[in-house]
Design a protein that fits this description.
With about 280 residues, this protein is an alpha/beta fold. It has two domains: about 20-175, Rossmann fold (3-Layer(aba) Sandwich); about 180-280, Orthogonal Bundle (Conserved Hypothetical Protein Ylqf, Chain: A, domain 2), CATH 1.10.1580. Helices cover about 40% and strands about 15% of the residues. Helix 3 (about 75-85) links the parallel strand 2 (about 60-65) and strand 3 (about 90). Helix 7 crosses helix 10 and helix 9 (about 225-235) crosses helix 10 (about 250-265). The N and C termini lie far apart (about 55 Å).
Length: about 280
Amino acid sequence: MSGRGGRPKTTVKPMILASWRSLIWVLRRADIVLEVVDARDPMSTRSRRLERLVHSMGKELIIVINKSDLVPRDVAEKWKKLFEDRGFRAVYIAARDHKGTRRLRVAIREAASSFPAVVAVTGFPKTGKSSIINALKGRHSASTSPIPGSPGYTTHAQLYRIGENLYMIDTPGVIPIEGGPLEAIIRGYPPEQLKDPVRPAVMLLEKALRYNPRCVENAYGIKERDPYKILELIAIKRGWRYKSDGEPLIEEAARTVIRDYHRGKLLFYVPPEEYLLSASRRR
């Protein structure tokens, strides 16, 4: 079977999004909670509701600024300081490359009020929670025990030993998405599952070009700035056309743009200074 553009259809599994009830189940079993945010836009990928919930439960919270390899180091440092100035523990890492894992382990031990301590990893989809879990587990870790009474998506939750008197719940707490309509779409669904990928791709390109005017040229060799024209040119360059009329298959180009953002190919970041400026205006 193939679609209008002649590309084979694929079976897409829906993204698993936890309910707050499931997330609370994870939080209650932890002493320390890691909230993973994306270094390219930490404020749009953090959850104030989670932070309030963790505080109300008396748990220790560490904000983990992941994907820091996709921003200049001084930008990651500024975001870390910004969170710390607001009373949060924060650390930046690049979990995919296991960079900063040692700093994260130190931060976890400093946050622990007593031992043994259990860590839970939470965050929006596509922030790198699984990479952080794998980095903390390391090559030779083994589960110590299953966690009893786990509902729904946490059915197979295990405790892993990640250090002396330090354990981690291997199931990530996937936060129901906040952060605005763009984040809700590009993080809430796989690109293949979007009925209309063009709209979020256009929004994403507008944001990308605002913060990095050369990001499209660097990623695709295209100097155009109109988002719709960019999608058309990407489709033409890759030979993606509708079989029926030969028009560019911009829907596939749109899905590619969203994938490339998650992969770090379409590269831009929100500067901390912009958040500080907007925060000062709100006062």
